[in-house]
Specification:
Number of helices: 4
Shape: globular
Oligomer: single chain
Strand order of the largest sheet: 10-1-2-11-12
Structural class: alpha+beta
Strand content: 25-35%
Helix content: 25-40%
Largest sheet: 5 strands, antiparallel
């Protein structure tokens, strides 16, 4: 029997390489009849240090297309900027708004072809006149999956059971946004790398509605206990 005192011990439970830091977040997107709701927490962490407690992880790529970012903030910001540029070029050349799936495939191509240099998990969601509200998940590695709803980030592991239980088809806009906030607040209560506030965006044919829920008004968490 080997003595536990002789086993190598590391204060880092994540097995990171020298110079690397752990990151975490909770992001999700869910369509409804007429549009889609995106949501995210606002904590940006570098290891155990909270670098930004009110960051915006929901980036606008086009008029009715957004993405939720998880992983490396620098990597996902760069990817978002590239896709935003390509979509604006497509819109200028065609004279029509780009489709959500076009944005998703652009992001997938960039993420897959540079997967060895990136740490990026992205959810692309939005509305277009052809397919309505849509959600595409692009996890680490650059695969692309269209989903009825999508979760991402370290906090998502705590809430899959809850979303499976609470999700219903054909929910309206208010029901969908309420569920997104409820699910993200539960993840924030359990995941140390998720926290701060909740930002949501509702995307419809008629425009985009951003919403901000401060940390002392979350539907679940220490403020409500």
């Amino acid at each position: 029997m080997t003595s536990t005192s002789s086993l190598p011990f590391s204060s880092d439970p994540y097995g990171l390489k020298p110079g690397e830091v752990s990151t975490g977040t909770t992001i999700m997107a869910m369509p409804f009849d007429g549009g889609v709701v995106l949501g995210a927490d606002t904590r940006t962490s570098t290891g155990v240090y909270v670098a930004n407690r009110t960051s915006d992880k929901i980036a606008q790529l086009s008029t009715h297309i957004f993405c939720c970012r998880s992983g490396s903030a620098a990597d996902t910001q760069a990817l978002s900027d590239y896709v935003k540029y390509y979509l604006s070029t497509i819109e200028l050349e065609t004279g029509q708004p780009p489709l959500v799936k076009v944005a998703a495939h652009l992001m997938r191509k960039l993420a897959y072809e540079n997967k060895d240099q990136l740490m990026a998990g992205v959810i692309i969601a939005g509305w277009d006149p052809v397919h309505g509200g849509q959600v595409f998940n692009i996890p680490l590695g650059g695969s692309l999956i269209e989903m009825p709803f999508a979760l991402g980030g370290s906090g998502s592991t705590y809430i899959y059971g809850m979303i499976d239980s609470e999700y219903r088809e054909n929910m309206n806009q208010e029901e969908t946004r309420t569920l997104v906030k409820k699910v993200i607040s539960h993840a924030m209560a359990r995941d140390g790398s998720s926290g701060g506030c909740i930002r949501t965006v509702v995307v419809t044919e008629h425009g985009n509605d951003r919403d901000y829920t401060p940390g002392n008004q979350l539907p679940y968490g220490p403020a409500g206990w």
